[in-house]
# Entry
Amino acid sequence: MIEYFDYPFFVNALWGVVLISVASAIVGTYIVARRMVAICGGITHACFGGLGLGCFMGWNPLAVAAAFAVGSSLGVEWLSERQRLRQDSAIAVVWSLGMALGVLFVFLTPGYVPELNSFLFGNILTVTRTDLWLFGGFTAVLASFFALNYRRIVAVAFDPDFARVAGLPVRLLQGVMSVLVAVCIVLAIRLVGVMLLMAVISLPQLTAEVACRRFGSIMAGSVAVSLVCSVAGLFLSMAVDVPCSALIVMFMGAAFAVARCCRKMFKRPQADGN
# Structure
């Protein structure tokens, strides 16, 4: 296992896993608190339209996917708030259009698209030093924004109506968070791909919620769960030669199942004693 560190691509992958895990855990805590997991599913699949357009036009697919992600995130907010469209309906519109455009542009792209499997299922082993600087810069910006606006973000996440009454810039904070969520989703595509991304931004938070109740403790627990599962998945994938993304999600699912079982086991004696 130590010999893995002799390979530069593995070291890059390890740093990438750490940075993306921290960022997705922070963003995921906000998403779960606002009950936006379904929205993230729509944004994630809308990114496929950007990936397809990027491949078709010969542009950077992830850059185009980021534009699609930001546009779809703000679009869902606009449709649900300004156009009085039910949020689940707005998500369905963004989700279906994004996937349809992705399929169309991939079909129209001449020849075979070699990056398609990486975009769909993730491939963290292809991360470069440039990608690491991008991941690190985004994680630093995200952590700084949360540190400076922690109380405001908590208020907006749990009770936006109270935040408006309190005079907080709810619409501005929601807009900034929508952009950060969208960018985080695009970066996380490199880790687990479009198909498995919803698990990375929800399972660690749901696991942490079993033992934690406060926003800050849930976030810290999510970071810990995400880091442990992601690093374990990376090492095991190197040992058994299977996709890293699937193992990461399986570890996260197992952690959630164990946490729920432990909660039931510890609660039952208390109920019997009462």
